[in-house]
Amino acid sequence: QIFNQHNAEALSLGQAFHRMAQTEPNLDHDVSWFLLPSYWAKMVVALISFLCFANSYDGDFVFDDSEAIINNKDLRAETPLGDLWYHDFWGSKLSSNTSHKSYRPLTVLTFRINYLLAGGFYPIGFHVINIILHCTISVLMIDVFSILLGGLQFSSKGRRLNLAPKSSLLAALLFAVHPVHTECVAGIVGRADLLCALFFLLSFLGYCKAFRENKEGHTFSILWVLVSVILGAIAMLCKEQGITILGLNAVFDALVINKINLLELIQKLLHKDKLLENAGQLRKGLIFRITLLMSGGASILYIRWRIMGTGPPAFTEVDNPASFADSLFVRAINYNYYYSLNAWLLLCPWWLCFDWSMGCIPLIKSVSDWRIIALAALWFCLIGLICQALCSEDSHKRRILTLGLGFLIIPFLPASNLFFRVGFVIAERVIYLPSIGYCILFTYGFSLLSKQAKKKKILAVAVLGILLINVMRCVLRSSQWRSEEQLFRSALSVCPLNAKVHYNVGKNLADKGNQSAAIKYYREAVRLNPKYVHAMNNLGNILKERNELHEAEELLSLAVQIQPDFAAAWMNLGIVQNSLRRFEEAEQSYWTAIKHRKKYPDCYYNLGRLYADLNRHIDALNAWRNATVLKPEHSLAWNNMIILLDNTGNLAQAEAVGREALELIPNDHSLMFSLANVLGKSQKYKESEALFLKAIKANPNAASYHGNLAVLYHRWGNLDLAKKHYEVSLKLDPMAPGTKENYNLLRRKLEQLQKKVG
Questions:
Q1: Binning pLDDT at 50, 70 and 90, where does residue 313 land?
Q2: Which residues, 6 or more positions from 712, have their beta carbon under 8 angstroms from its beta carbon?
Q3: Residue 352: which of 221, 492, 227, 234 has the closest Cα?
Q4: Which of 148, 442, 641, 709 is a Cys-bridge partner for 692, taking CB atoms 3.0 to 4.6 Å apart?
Q5: Of 597, 623, 654, which residue constitutes the final position of a domain?
Q6: What per-residue confidence (pLDDT) applies to 8?
Q7: What is the per-residue pLDDT for 94?
Q8: Contact present, 658 and 678 (Cβ < 8 Å)
Q9: Which CATH number covers residue 532?
Q10: Environment class of 332 (CB within 10 Å of its CB; exposed 0-12, middle 13-18, buried 19+)
Q11: How many separate domains does the chain show?
């Protein structure tokens, strides 16, 4: 549908565009930079953006990737596709009180496609897609910046013209190589920001496409406005920030399409200027388009709110301490300080960290804190830019500064704590879109300096140096995101007061078996944050394994005292109490854990072990059965059921349970071994032998497997094979209990047989 505007008294949109092209100065005139054909410019940007992050292609799953991808059931084929629309980014139900309410179903869908195409959790495919997305976005930036810096004008054939090819190339390069983008590109979870940015830009370009000229003059297409709204909705389904493009499209329409001078408009409104009547017809189209944008945005937000179901997510004080401050003054001061730090990351992206919470940035509590200077500097710059954007007589300057500030501020609003509490202090990923505004302002500032500079080449070399430094910083930072060890250790120098950094370094060391070093970092995490229950829980676990049970109990007791619904800590406390032979307290701790987490198979498993120690066999079997109901692949629970039934002489029941377990977990060699033992005792030698051999094939270095197979052959009368497997077992484990005695018995028997034969 095409809406044509014809009014003899009003300035037509076509005339407005023509006048803009003729009267506005060309930004490129003062910019000393490379001039490349459009195709080559895009190739250069694509290549450089690829070089910045290429070394992250074979990185691991790191940090939040574990929860969003590896532990997210929504990626697996058995989860219905429809569930993605009712689950959050992490795979939890949106209606749950524990949900983070981050609704990004389209991003999760791309993860699922990655998983299915790769046939499992292989990170290369995930990383490659992220790199391709960033390269694509960087190339699109040339078109976006050509409009934002050079204006919107079409040729007689309806093709959009790039009036600022040098400036748009520089701005796109600045965006492509900005180190703050590393988290989005090298961290797989950052795909939400990349996909959001892609559809964000497509929405903007689609909106611009609504204003192509034709033979009858300049028109706007309702269809393309609606397409822009739909693309904005898709951007929001990738990440929440995407909705802000609708506001930016409205700002662009007012400033570029209608060339509204905000200060002049306010003055005329105050004086009820008659000129407003003449401009009324022109602005009817603007009001109609903004109404479409607002209606679309309101509809999207309403649907999002309905799907979310409950209120906002419940974050803790450690996630965002400023938002929990009692004083409005303290909250306001610290929010503004966070804004200044975000601005500094754009200006000087040298100190980068995967997490800025948990004491990384201590709260400002009084005006005597020297960090107040950062707030003053931020607002001094912002107020100066806003005054220039509103009051400058140069319409070209007003337009670029306003668009730059708009793209800097509006996409950042969802992360600003102004409308709702967010779950972080600073997050580098949320600066991906606002960096567009930074690139506009930097490029415009460079053009002004070039205009004044006598030696423009020196200035161009300086900017080239900045780009080169940023490329090297991207390469270095990408390499740090390749593994959790490098990522976490890189944060120690940036945020030494961040308890979560020390916790993650400790966890990484513990996962690699270096418990002594892990203890050091866990203790430091607890020292920095005495209420860090997860660090207490993990430290308590390691101390429990090292048999330092009393200190482990103290830590775990403190953890559940601080957070009474911490189910994992209750379970671990029960394990420690069981080891200390305080069985009643252990049982109570297990049941408290289950009370706070109804579906807790591991806790039922440990409860079953407690009952087995107390010879409460029926209770033990029931607990293990509950564990297997909740988690059918719980091998340890199945094994313990088989062994308990075997030891109590219930061979038929043990066999039935073993067969049931193997149907569910057919490749579990420990289950094959347990069932083979039962079948051997039931004199089902052939079937027992087959299972033993299958278990040995899966795990050839298990001494007990060879030893028990030898016992089976011994009973069966196959003495040569028995001797062979006894010897293999003793070679693998010379101290294997009972094996040496059985082997000696067999040797004596063989000697006796040889004497008889002789």
A1: confident
A2: 676, 680, 685, 688, 689, 692, 722
A3: 492
A4: 709
A5: 597
A6: 34
A7: 83
A8: yes
A9: 1.25.40.10
A10: middle
A11: 2
